[in-house]
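hey m, so remember when u said the tokens were messed up on ur end? i reran from scratch. heres the input so u can diff it against urs
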Amino acid sequence: MKQRLVFPRQKIGLICVDQRVGCSGQESCSDWRGIFRPQVLLHSFLLFTFWLSPIAAGAVDITQQLHRPINSSVGRESRDEADSLLRIGEQQYTSGYADKTIASCLRALELYHSIGDLKAQGLTYNLLAKAYVQLGSSKEAEDAFRRGLAIARDTKDFQAEIFVLNNIGTFLLQQGESAAAGKTVEDALAIAHGVKNIEGEGLSLSNLGLVTARLGDYNKAIKLYENALTFRRQTGDAIGEANTLNNLGDAYLASGNYQDTIGTYGAAMRIAKINRDRFNELRAIDGLVKAHSAVGRYERAFDLLEQRLKLAKELQNLREELKSFESYAQVYKQKGNYLTARNFYERAIILARTLQDSKQELQLLDQLTKMLQQK
């Protein structure tokens, strides 16, 4: 159940494949040392070391920009350029170009430091962290998360803190640290409940559902998702609602409840399509393809895959095209049509090479080899 890295509207970046304790402020929440486990992450996450370590090997030394003298005209130009770079970075990330996103973010950070805009720096660090996660650069992602969390706490921006903690929780979950992820998201939920942040409660409950599902308790996860939907609908957060519906669909699929799986993914796809939320639309299609294939409805699965490939091409997103080809191959293999499956595996492999993704290329080659051995 892989969750996406989300960048919410004008607030703070999330990696939430887009969620108890009574906490009324920062002092009740766990510090950075309690968030990352030493066997997986580094020991350098104490907040008092925040300004002492570089963002990443080879990164621009942005700290020196803090004291650069600027006049108001230069400040306005710098802000406009930084804001533009951040928007470009978001587009690059959405299109699957994490390396370009990182370059845009580092330049934007340099400019935001020069004008002293801490909140904008926090937004940028979170997008930067998402890009590093996409590239598999865990150390750099951790550093960016740490800086973003420190800024949220320094500025007493509780909403930002809620979302950064959810980002961290999802990251930990992806690293296999379910217990640490759950504690981190519970801290976020406690803050959200304490400051009556409904949006934060919905997100935190949805992410707690992710943690619970990862632990195999699908019935409890379903209840958490249903509770999360109540909050997300209160705020009119259509993207958040689609994300949680996709999570709920994942839980139904894992528990073998195909009827509710199809209905839930279908609702997520409709909401995502209306709101032009392409990520959740693609994710809902993926879930529907799996559900229909599982019950032998291959024609419906192929119709959905045709929609998926068309959408990926419209987005000019080669990585999503690759995923579409891989899904085609898997469905044809499941149906027993190995010749057509081989064709789609080969097309996916070509795109992996185009993207210079050697890891994905090897995985696809392994799938193809195993399939040919089964013939």
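this time it looks ok to me. DSSP finds 15 helices and no strands in the chain. if urs says something different then somethings off w ur setup not the seq
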